[in-house]
Structure formats: C-alpha cells, structure tokens
Design a protein that fits this description.
This is ABC-2 transporter permease. It holds the Pfam family ABC2_membrane_5. InterPro entries: ABC2_memb-like. This protein is mainly α. It has one domain. It contains 7 helices and 2 strands. A hairpin with a 2-residue loop joins strand 1 and strand 2. The longest helix has 34 residues. About 6% of the residues have low confidence.
Length: 215
C-alpha cells in the first residue's frame, strides 16, 4: 500500500507545484475581498482535478498494463487510489486552515467557527463528488466522466440557488412551513451519512469494474 501511495505521489508531484501558485492567488483574493469562501474552493478544485488527472496520467504511461504484472491485487490498487485522494483532500483542507489563520493574523475579521463549518461543508461535497466520480471513471473513462461531473455540478448549483431564494422566515412546501436553517442542518447530517455509506458502495463498484477490465 505504501508503495502504491508513493507511486500516486510521484505521479502527481508535478501538478502539486502548480497548486501552490493557485493557492497563492486564492489567498490574496480572499485577503483583499475579506472572505474565506473563495479560499475554501481550493478543496473542491484540487480534489476533483487531482481525481481526474491521475487517471489521465495513468492512461498516458500505460500503468494499468504494467500493474497487472505486479504482485498486487486490483482491489489494493483501487484502495490506494481512494486513500490517496482522501489524503489530498485532508492536506488541502489543512493548508486552507493555515491560510485562513494567516489572513486572520494579518488582517483580522475571521469568524473561526463559521469558517471551519464552511470548510467542512465544502470538504464533504468534494468527497461525495469523488465517491461518485471514481466508479464512473473506471467504467467510462475520464473524458465521459467530465460530462457527468458537469451535470452533477449544475444540479447542485441550481439546488443551492433554490435554497438561497428561501426567505429568512422559512418556506411553504406542500402546505408545511419548513425553516431554511433546519433544511440545511438535516441536509448536512444526511450528507455525512451518505458519504459514509457511499464510501463502501463506491469502492465496491470501482473494484468490481476494475477487476472485469482487460488490459
């Protein structure tokens, strides 16, 4: 497993250098705009980009053909990819926390509990998107998976836009008055449960698909 994680790291090492440039840009943008939301978008940006990029690089160098000659099971290869993706998510989240604290020390005005909550929400969305993308990429390939990602992203954006239209007092839905804050609270709890259950389902699907493929 460690060897596979190292392979993933070396494969993405060149990309990580460009992430630093993006991180610097996002930091200065959030600094001058006095908002952490743009900074936190690094999580979903890098999380999704790295998920797709690593598959593209594998295909370009013929990794799958080489991997089947190694004393490794296909399940181990898939598990390493999932683990590496989540390690990137955690690493980027920690980096965002440090940049957020740095902005707070220099400029002030950071609401730590609220910012951490926003960071957690974006991290959760990123993980859910990755859990969806992994089986799709293994089945259809990176190019077709991009269309799936865009479709889901548009649906999520429309959903968020719809929630933003709810007034402060709540909304009437099928004759029942529902408070918007409770909707978000229950939705977040449901997303955590969905991510936990989705991890096993996504991993099982990816392993099942990968084991059926011929190289």
């Amino acid at each position: 497993m460690i060897g596979l994680l190292k392979k993933e790291y070396y494969l993405m090492e060149g990309q990580m250098k460009s992430w630093l440039i993006v991180a610097v840009f996002c930091f200065f943008y959030s600094y001058f705009m006095n908002a952490d939301s743009f900074l936190f978008m690094l999580i979903i940006l890098i999380g999704i980009m790295s998920t797709m990029t690593v598959f593209s690089l594998d295909k370009a160098c013929g990794w799958d053909t080489y991997a089947i000659s190694l004393p490794l099971t296909r399940k181990e290869i898939v598990e390493a990819r999932y683990l590496f993706a989540f390690l990137i998510d955690i690493g980027v989240s920690l980096a965002c926390c440090l940049l957020m604290l740095l902005r707070g020390l220099i400029k002030g005005g950071v609401n730590l509990p609220e910012s951490l909550h926003s960071l957690f929400q974006i991290l959760l969305v990123t993980i859910l998107m990755q859990l969806l993308l992994f089986p799709v990429i293994y089945k259809l390939g990176v190019e077709k998976a991009r269309f799936v990602y865009m479709a889901v992203f548009i649906c999520l954006s429309l959903g968020v836009l719809g929630l933003s239209q709810l007034d402060d007092n709540g909304a009437v839905l099928a004759g029942i008055r529902i408070n918007a804050e409770k909707i978000m609270q229950y939705g977040e709890a449901a997303a955590v449960i969905l991510a936990a259950a989705g991890l096993f389902l996504s991993l099982w699907l990816s392993v099942h698909i990968y084991e059926k493929q011929e190289f």
